[in-house]
Amino acid sequence: MAEKKVRVGLIGLGSISYAHEAGYSELGEDCQIVALCDINEEEVNNRIGMYAGAKGYTRYQELLDNPSVDMVDITVPHVMHYEIAKAALEKGKHVLVEKPITVISSQAEELIALAKQKGLKFSVAENTHFVTAYLKAEEILKQGLLGDIWSVRTLIAGSEAYRIKDPNLWHGKAPYGGVILDSSVHNFYLFKWLFGGVKDVLGFASKIIPEGEMEDNGLILGHLANGAEFLLHTSCTFEIPWTERVEIYGSQGGMIIDQLVDPVVKYYMGSGDIDGTVVEGVPFDPMAWKFNSMIAEVGDFVHAVIEDRPPRIDPQDALYALKAAEAVARSIETKKFVSM
Ligand SMILES: NC(=O)c1ccc[n+]([C@@H]2O[C@H](COP(=O)([O-])OP(=O)(O)OC[C@H]3O[C@@H](n4cnc5c(N)ncnc54)[C@H](O)[C@@H]3O)[C@@H](O)[C@H]2O)c1
Description:
Blueprint: E1 6-11, H1 17-26, E2 31-37, H2 41-48, E3 55-57, H3 60-64, E4 71-74, H4 81-90, E5 94-98, H5 105-118, E6 122-125, H6 132-143, E7 149-157, H7 161-164, H8 179-195, E8 198-206, E9 217-224, E10 229-235, E11 243-250, E12 254-258, E13 265-268, E14 277-278, H9 289-307, H10 315-334, E15 338-339
Parallel strand pairs: 1-2, 1-4, 2-3, 4-5, 5-6, 7-10
Antiparallel strand pairs: 7-11, 8-9, 8-15, 9-10, 11-12, 12-13, 13-14
Helix pairs in contact: 1-9, 4-5, 5-10, 8-10
């Protein structure tokens, strides 16, 4: 039996909110959704019936005035993260906000300081740290199996073309709807976690879908903190299921993680190791690997509130990822390497 039930207010009922909702359902008695908010009233009415006694709102300010809400989960477009998170912290609510933490790093710094001052839990729904394949990769890297890390290549890709073409949606719209801010933060978070961060970046962006106002493809290269080279490719015009691929090459071996390939994780110890070694315990599940990581991240935050411990995602690391994406934007503008 839980010591305390955390009462949740969910703000933003769009596509990603379903994964968060599943995370709260999974927690059973540990939490309860008591309030829902979206500017789209129809969506509020459609979803409210699932939660006995829950209150529905179309203005987040009214949800924040509800004293029954202990924490809010913010799953609205990036540009609204700062305003809503700030108001929630000021009202004494714990805050879990989707990535990117905010759209400007000074806003994120302000939120981190405010949460600290108020003694509230504040974290970012950076699901990367809950992806089974990356947790296995962390173990292998810690064992030193691959030797010194020399090169890392990543891909985050899928299709958002239908959303970019929809004039009523924010995806692809200036100034914050580009794929680099949207997706590279996941990889920059990963680089910070597994390799200590990045030294410098050089960015290249392109726009394929005419209706979009922002880049829908980004290629970023640079050096990791240990001097290794990296190449990060992100696209929202690839007509494949949303996926991530990470390749890590070191002085002793290489590891390939690919959510669209079965087995998902394999490592090779040199050019003669044709068969490689399959890393067990990583299910091939292109439909659910990401969804499951989000369920885990929501669970971690609720338990952090119950147990009064820091959430696994330190918002400073989410801020780091945002600063790296800002460095990429500066690099694209100046056509030069930008140091972190
Ligand atoms: N972790 C991940 O991999 C991942 C994946 C997808 C989206 N996201 C993040 O989640 C956030 C939402 O993305 P999405 O794809 O669900 O977007 P979406 O457009 O599908 O949903 C956003 C919802 O917020 C609502 N909304 C907008 N302004 C609001 C306001 N002021 N008050 C209340 N509701 C408001 C909209 O009506 C909509 O229902 C984004 O920041 C995105 O980066 C993260």
